[in-house]
């Protein structure tokens, strides 16, 4: 497994300028030592002095300065993409002040000029990530990196931007992070922070701790054989290799002393002794614990379910293998969920045939409602995907040990060389049953707004938790989506450091099929009506999901940036009434 070598590491705690001002300065101007308790023993460390340079660009050859517009060219609340010759920037005017940041969202490269400017931040039009216009810092997710920030000056009514050429080209900035103090002092079987799970929640927790100046030991462990990767791509871009979708390169984990133990499964947690027991018997003591184990896919319960060529897609290897086996062959997908529909769309022009089996009468019914589900179904049928609705699988049949046919309860027999199962998932929390950590009747870990469980020092995040959603009057909900996992990880980290930060983000997700995306914000569970604007047949629409008189969620296709606009309104704590959208 990946482990950072236990070598003597020089103390090097680099803290961003805005964080520096928060640090307590002792009378002689040097930073006071910070103290963290590690397994009961106090460790002192000093922050290294880093003089704050007045000129942030070290290499004059790397700097470009250009006049980009007249001061009157932009009104308050306007954004403009401007070209500096060797790259572009996003120029923003808000409350009479100009700001300049990177013009592309670091997540998937969306043009931020088409996003939404509100309350001192810009929200991505594609997937809802938010960036502070003054600092460029990421404030809501998905994605890990912030935007580069550029200097703006006004001279003779003209607006000038001064920028690093490198930053203009990369369009992303990794926030400065602390490093671990001497690793050689550590006992291999004890850590200050243990993170179980290496998805978005686990990784963002580790990165946030380092960004906040935490310089003690952090260990992440995962059952996966890979370093953290972009899991949504497993069903959207199925032939991606692990290194193509990794969230950070191996060097990143070494540079910031984030240790990742791969192929390591935790079998039990003793919260009294603060010890995690691994399946192979290895034990690790911790001070703070984050449980971010995600979920486990449900399997079929019919005869033949253990057969070769029947897949739950959990890993890049699963996805790659399905593509290889499905090429020019017959594929049956069970479950018209996000995973099932995305896999069907990806395989439609690669396989000989794609059949989808679903219990409901339209796909996405619970999530997007009847009318949107029907419009999406039509798009799939136009792309040669065949649906078998209101039925389920009764048997999988083999020939010479390999899958040959899928038998439905309706009596229909489908030819099948490959079967992909996407019938939902359950939280991966079985190992916590005897731990004393509060788990609800469905197996979800119950946390508060600070991602704390009922056990002090134990936090949980991601798909395996229920948490109070501010948007729905603090109702305890489970939101098993990529953006929310990022935010959970961040909130957990801040509260491990006793910041007292509560979660208040608006859920945001997307699905991609046949080159088209549906974007969604809010929490529509239990909606009782859908107000649709636009044209469903043309797949250019916005759907508002209402409960009694209130809009609780929104979905759109080819209607950007409406979902990001609604997300911003909801994030500001404002209510949208049904009559406002009718």
Write up this protein.
The structure is a single chain. By secondary structure, the chain is an alpha+beta fold. The chain has four domains: 63-170, Rieske Iron-sulfur Protein, CATH 2.102.10; 190-296 and 427-497, FAD/NAD(P)-binding domain (3-Layer(bba) Sandwich); 310-423, 3-Layer(bba) Sandwich (FAD/NAD(P)-binding domain), CATH 3.50.50.60; 515-580, Enolase-like, domain 1. Helix content is 18%, strand content 32%. It contains twelve helices and 38 strands. The strands form ten sheets. Strands 3-12-11-6-5-4 form a six-stranded antiparallel sheet. It has a five-stranded parallel sheet with strand order 15-14-13-19-31. A hairpin with a 2-residue loop joins strand 11 (149-155) and strand 12 (158-164). Helix 3 (200-211) runs parallel beside helix 10 (482-496). It is globular, with a radius of gyration of 25 Å.
Mean pLDDT: 90
Strand order of the largest sheet: 3-12-11-6-5-4
CATH class categorisation of the largest domain: Alpha Beta
Please state the structural category: alpha+beta
Domain Rieske: 66-161
Function: Induces apoptosis through a caspase dependent pathway. Reduces mitochondrial membrane potential.
Main location: mitochondrion
Keywords: 2Fe-2S, Apoptosis, Electron transport, FAD, Flavoprotein, Iron, Iron-sulfur, Metal-binding, Mitochondrion, Oxidoreductase, Transport
List keywords for this structure.
582 residues, alpha+beta, Rieske Iron-sulfur Protein, FAD/NAD(P)-binding domain, six-stranded antiparallel β-sheet, five-stranded parallel β-sheet, 12 helices, globular, disordered N terminus
